[in-house]
Amino acid sequence: MPVPRCHLREVVVQLEAGVYKMQLCCIQLHELLASLVGDLGTFDAPVCVVADPNLVRLVVSEGVSNASTYGRRNTPIHVKAELVVPPGVVTPLSHHLHISIANLNKPDVAPMSHAECKRAFSRRARAMRAVHNLTAT
Fold first, then answer.
1. Running DSSP on this structure, what letter comes out for residue 130?
2. Which of 1, 18, 49, 84 has the greatest number of CB atoms lying within 10 Å of its CB?
3. What is the bridge-based pairing of β-strands 48-51 and 77-84?
4. What does the DSSP assignment read for 51-81?
5. 41-50, 65-74, 114-123: least confidently modelled range
6. Quick one: pLDDT at residue 1?
7. How is 83-122 classified by DSSP, letter by letter?
């Protein structure tokens, strides 16, 4: 069942305020990704993972939305989710869920460099966009 956009926005507000309480549970990742990706593309992921379903929904829905907006028309979006052990960690319970979302850019949109991605997704950049959105209305 899709989560209302207002609920995902509340998750973002709580994350940025540092008050979000993560709720880990076993989620059926295949089902969740199928509902979020739909006919826009494909996905490759473990069937079940322990993660916060709100955060997974937020990350994937925003990523798929951006890929759809900035991607080449009629090209599939591919979502890949995998459990990764961070470097130096030996405990098997310390896996991180790594999600990547990819598709072809529009012909007139150059791919972002690693440095540009880091800048675009920094706290300062998000804050500047929020200020712009508030003052643009």
1. H
2. 49
3. unpaired
4. E-HHHHHHHHHHHHHHHHHHBPTT--EEEEE
5. 114-123
6. 44
7. EEPPTT---GGG-EEEEEEE-PBPTT-PPPPHHHHHHHTS
Enter the tokens of residue 108: 């007139």
Helix, strand, or coil (residue 26): strand
**Is the pLDDT at 56 greater than 90, yes or no?**
yes
Predicted pLDDT of residue 137: 46
Mean of per-residue pLDDT scores for the chain: 82
Spatial neighbors of 53 by CB under 8 A, at least 6 apart, are 23, 25, 27, 32
Residue 27 vs residue 70, higher pLDDT: 27
pLDDT score, position 128: 58
Place of tokens 């990547």: 100
Q: Which residue has the tokens 């990523």?
A: 63
- Rounded to whole angstroms, the Cα distance separating 14 from 16 reads 5
